[in-house]
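Schema walk-through. Below, the input block comes first and the output block second. Nothing else is stored per chain. Lengths vary across the set, and this one has 105 residues.
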Amino acid sequence: MKAVLFFLTVAGAGWGIWWKIDGRVKESEKASETRIKTAEDKADAAQKDLAAHKLHAAEIFATKAGMHEQTSQLLRAIEGVGNRIDSMNERLDRAFERTTSRTTR
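--- output ---
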């Protein structure tokens, strides 16, 4: 009888401890679920904001065709500067030719 009472006491104590641990685990799971839900909501909001920003950037900022047009304008401007420099050499050559043909008295 004492042995049966001892095993029932040990089993009851073990069940009581397990009941407390199980209760705390369930509370932790509920708290984790709310935190996970909050984090998912924040991630969804951030994803929507990012998509809106990508759309805004695509509408407002440079496109490939716009960049091609700007690049060609810059290259034409640089080519114009190069042509002016080339013509400057010809002008300087003419200026030196004129000064050497003078005679001094």
